[in-house]
Batch of 2 targets.
Target 1
Amino acid sequence: MAAIYQKFNEFLLATTVLNRLNAHLMVNRHAASLWLNEPGARLRVTAVPAFADNYIWLIHSPILPEQVVVVDPGDAGPVQKSLRNAGLKLGAILITHHHADHVGGVEELVRQHNVPVFGPIGEFSPGNPERVGDGQVVRLHELGLEFTVLEIPGHTKGHIAYVGHGALFCGDTLFSAGCGRLFEGTAQQMSNSLGKLGILPGNTQVYCGHEYTLSNLSFASVVEPDNRDIQEHIKLAGSLRERGSPTLPSCIELESKINPFLRLGTETVKRAAAQYAGHMLSSESEIFAALRDWKDHFRPSPSNAGTVPA
């Protein structure tokens, strides 16, 4: 009889624990749902510097403050240090493209934390990722996060971006005042990809993969020497770098004013590209190709050099 009574108490205890766990999960799911649908909800994002000029991004969960998602961890060391120093736990990994400085730390982080990995459907990435493509949604409901995937080829053939919560994580496609080199894709692809990003809401925060802003602004100021927005941002970006602060995030509205690769239809940019090419250019992809070739051979003045993109 005593044994039956003990088993009954154990059953009641187990039932109570399960009910409390389910209630906790339901509360978190409800909180996530509320946050995902809250107008103007903004992410908290931390920059983790790596190598000479990379940024690895930590996206903080809005409902579980100790949990973060990491974007493009090219090196596990700085990520592990940031997690340890801030008492954070890794919840997932997002990959934009396959270059080593963006994926070099993935396998080590997976070994240490056993978290899900998401990466481009059109490229091989380490860490056995779930491969995602254009229009798919990465749902991390327990963290209160979800991101829509955009395919943005050009820098690499399978490059993707993640968009959500008013933020864009675009790897090496769009930089502040610039864009990535064409390692695998074509000018037409990159022009189309930048066009896709350029129509995002103006207040979308832009988190790209490198600190190239001052170098890019130096080029932009040659393309459009009378653009006051570029001149003003050179001052701001220079001040930030002098203090050791990132010039990022940018935003789409600002980029539409200072980034020549998002201003292909602007008369001043069209004229400058045609002058560089030595003939009239009839399409935006031709304008882009001329600008990209010009930028590839451009050397910024020492005062605005920043880090020169590879």
Note: The chain has a mean pLDDT of 89.
Target 2
Amino acid sequence: MQRNIGRMFLLLLILLSSVLEPKLSIAQNLSIFHHLSTNRDSISDIVIASTFPHNPESFTQGLVYHKGYLYESTGLNGNSSLKKIEIESGRVIKEIKLGEKYFGEGLAILNNKIYQLTWKNQEGFIYDLNTFREIRKFSYSGEGWGLTTDGKTLFMSDGSSTIFLIEPELFKIVGKIEVHDKNKIPVTNLNELEYIKGEIWANIFTEAIIVRISPQTGNVLGWIDLRRLYKILPNQGRRDVLNGIAYDQEGDRIFITGKHWPELFEIKIQNLNQN
């Protein structure tokens, strides 16, 4: 009798734990694509419009298009830099190196200034857009991952499901966006950011996908499948994860690359639906 009661108590504990167990974030699932197909989320495909050379030595952490050129922030201690790049040739027009203690991260251009984050130093840089002269440093708490702007406010990610709204002059947090899917499951590992047509697009660390986010609500508006890019990258040489989104607003062009990728892709999105 006591043994049966013990077994019943154990079963009750198991049932309670399954009910009370918190929902995993999307990035904690074994396969994000499995989760999305099960959830019947809207996933857009891509078409590759053009391919351009990209330096395979670049550990891309931030990517911005501005007036015909790409601006790139690269990471790794001792190899971090800020570059201005000619798209067609991949030629570096201007470059500055960060100190060895810095690991370069996200990048944004606002009011003729370049803002560059670092990973764990809790310190970033503001440069003159034309000369790359350092204007000043700024500080923040936690890690710096991605950075973008809507033309007024800066948006920063730190690898969690939160995007921080930053006042650019003092680099002060003025708001937060908690990113979640239609079932209110948090979307974590938000990495490189880009502001596109009123939405925030984000790479998800280690995943071949872009998540489209509403800046007003944090709702996921849709997903973009980038697995096609991995299939056409050269097999030889080293290549790391997808990371880098840049948008040419005037030409309505979207550029994608990754860490140590030998190519930069201009892509077009098919079936850009919303959840």
Note: The chain is about 10% helix and 45% strand.
